[in-house]
Amino acid sequence: MLKIRGTKLKSPRPEAFIQSFSHSIIQSIGRQVNKKEYLCRHVMKRGLYIIIFAAICMTDVCAQVRGGSRSERGGFSLSSRSAAQVPDSLLAPDDSTSGSSPIKAFRLSELGERYIVPMDTDRMNTAGSTLIEGQGIAVAHTGNIGSPSQSRIFTERRESRDFIFADPYDAYIITPQNGHFYDTKVPYTNVLYTRAGSSDRMEEQLKMLLTSNFGKKINIGGDFDYIYGRGFYHSNGNKLINYRLFGSYRSDRYEASAHLRNFNMVSSENGGLSNDRYVTHPDEFADGKRKIDTKSYPTRLTGTWNRVRGKDLFLSQRYNLGFYRQLTTKEAERKKQREEERQRQSEEETAQNEKNGVTQPPPADEEPEDDIHEDEVFVPVSSIIHTFEYEDNRRRFISNYPVIDTCYSNIYAPAGQMPNDTASAWRMRNTFALSMREGFQDWAKFGLAVFAGFESRNFKFSGDSASDTANRYDEFSTFIGGEILKQRGDILTYRAYGELYIAGKDLGEFRINGNVKTRFTLLGREASLQANGFIRNVRPAFYQQHYFGRYFRWDRQLKMTQHAHVEGIAAIERTRTQLSAGVESLQNHVYFSQDGIPEQFGGNIQVITGRLKQDFRYKALGWENELVYQISSEKDILPLPQLCAYSNLYATFKLFDVLTVQLGADVHYYTAYYTPYYEPATQQFLNQDKIKTGNYPLLNAYANFHLKQTRFFITGYNLGSLIIDHPEYFSMPHYPTNPMLIKMGLSVMFNN
After folding, report:
1. Radius of gyration over alpha carbons of the chain, in Å?
2. Strand ranges inside 295-406, DSSP E
3. Contact between residue 556 and residue 593 where contact means Cβ atoms under 8 Å apart
4. Does residue 663 sit in helix, strand or coil?
């Protein structure tokens, strides 16, 4: 009989955390369910405890058995793995309640324009979204959640930062363009907790979001992400703390959005396994034992760490110039319907609370404010815009491994010292813009904006250890640009944005991007055609040109790089199909060679990409598929897997008319290629031509559950390591993915 060991962690046991959440959620559910659901509340309460506790126990047992012996360029996307069931959101109405969502999420354009984006509230595929492979269909990484990673799909890779050491953590860093802002009718909270593995190799994540409106104009909130992965291999743990405070104000005349973000990422570096046969042929090292502990696999490095931390302060504000006009008859009717719907929701909630014995404080006696524009609507004509951003990033590479110098060919520091490489960068950017708004008159079919800005940057990194000096660089740039867009209507929408640097260090640099989209009805449902494209002429990142460390150093003047991209996308909602094709052209591409030094390829590289996303749905069965085919004209300079695929087969059903269950299995696959190697000393992905990874199916099985506003799951990860002879589950050369493990998680949403 297997004995479940108690954890030695100082943090509270997850069982108590989950039980507390489960108890509170079930109590809240009891206030909302109908009579039939209310009668089975106590049965569901005990059943939920049993399911969650069994998942926890199974996690401990299975983990000890093993240890003891996954762009922003696309439009419609199936990457959330939920297109097979519509609607698939906890914010969608469950029954006869209002169809108006109590919360909306927004992102901001470069000039601070808000646009609505979907939220992480899908009822389906919760388990897959919490894996590192959930970042995309093909992701290279060093093993754990929170570890450095890079997409194998070239079109999903972002433009390099000047501070290139943060690029491997792109999936976790919140920027002004990918961060969410909110508008809520009720306070909103979302909590996610996941766990995998036993105490000495456990992976845990706690992710929280809290936001609330204070009146109709002000929203304030914060989000928090904590990841602690102790690692299934020697010296490959990760710890990540990422938090953000955000807020927005919106009135007819004045709008503002701001955030303060901070992150701290610590990665224990092992440089990969020193003998890959421990994974591919473990029987050779078992020495009569049934299994060998993965923690005992020899690694290239030990006692070595990278720490990357950064902060970002952002403000976008605008003052709108315009006029008020009377509401049309249709607008007045819609306004009246919204008010009646809000009143009905409030009355139903009060009645339900009284039925369940929940008392609420009476509303404060407030006299309604006189609104002189109650029967009018504000029409913005133009806007004066200002955006400000200050970003500060720092990195340190240290080690106490006594023989680490023997792992590198070059040593640019006195012998006998231990590595202590540092690098930092800060950037301050101010942009001022004037815009003419779309649609303020019938003839204003599109919006226009012009802008100008100034950017200041500072870089500092380790110098010659003998003289104990540091290298410092200051850079300044001035830029201008414009934007034209049409976002209203279904027949045709478009947007084009461009910026040109006219003075300073970046003189001659420019970026132009745009998209055009049309929507129409096909087979009784919506279909769309879209074209995206951009062209860039930019300076290589600063730290691709200058760096001084103990084992790597370079000081180069690289040429401007040119990158052009064009892509066409067709989406058919009726058949759940999306087909896209694109081509990339790169000139003076910068890459890291086998020697760990940045090199520039003077020729032209072309990348052709085709992508097919196809979902099938028949009664309770769902099958989601995504296929990416890509060709690089220079495989030695830009190696890419020719084929990447993802498939997810599942069945969904309900228990007791309230508990939605999804049982299924998914697989990630990519063809073998010379995958770049992750070098800890520079945190970059180096080209190599000795080892191929790929041609291995990463198979996972899962069970997802959804109960009102609660989601929980249990999943088996990398099942192929148990059933495939001589498994080669390497994500990158010498970096294996985690072996088979059991992972569970709980997500709870409160919007009251």
Report:
1. 27
2. 304-326, 376-399
3. no
4. strand
Of 593, 612, 603, nearest to 632 by C-alpha is 603
Would you state the pLDDT for residue 291? Answer: 79
pLDDT in tens, 614-637: 999 999 999 999 999 999 999 999
Q: How far is CA 689 from CA 202, 637, 693, in A?
A: 34, 10, 11
- Strand, coil or helix: what is 435? strand
CA dihedral 34, 35, 39, 40 (to 10 degrees): -30
pLDDT at 3 over 80: no
Distance of CA 434 to the CA centre of its chain: 32
CA 496/CA 131 separation, integer angstroms: 35
- Provide φ and ψ at 327, rounded to 5°: -70, 140
Residue type, 93: P
pLDDT given for residue 439 in this prediction:
86
The whole-angstrom separation of Cα 237 and Cα 306 is 11
The rounded Cα 86 to chain-centroid distance in angstroms is: 22
Question: Which of 173, 80, 82 minimizes the C-alpha distance to 129?
Answer: 80
Give the count of alpha carbons within 13 A of 367, CB side only.
Answer: 1
Tokens of 495: 């947007």
Place of tokens 């069931």: 85
Angle subtended by helix axes 41-68 and 14-30, to nearest 10: 160
Quick one: which H or E segment has residue 493? strand 493-504
Report the distance separating Cα 247 and Cα 751, nearest Å: 18
Backbone angles phi, psi at 30, to 5 degrees: -60, -25
State the SS3 of 604-632.
Answer: EEEEEEEEEEEEEEECCEEEEEEEEEEEE
In DSSP notation, 653-667 reads EEETTTEEEEEEEEE
Spell 659-669 as b/e; 16+ CB within 10 A means b. Answer: bbbbebebebb
Q: What's the pLDDT tens digit per position in 270-317?
A: 999 999 999 999 888 877 667 788 999 999 999 999 999 999 999 999
User: What are the φ and ψ backbone dihedral angles of 40, each rounded to 5 degrees?
Assistant: -100, 15
**pLDDT tens digits, one per residue of 25-56:** 444 434 433 433 433 344 334 443 433 434 33
Structure token pair of residue 592: 């890291």
Q: What are phi and psi of 170, to 5 degrees?
A: -55, -35
Instruction: Evaluate whether 565 touches 586 at the Cβ level (below 8 Å).
Output: no
Instruction: Report the alpha-carbon distance of residue 524 to residue 207 in Å, rounded.
Output: 40
Spell out the alpha helix ranges (H) of 323-478: 329-355
pTM (predicted TM-score): 0.83
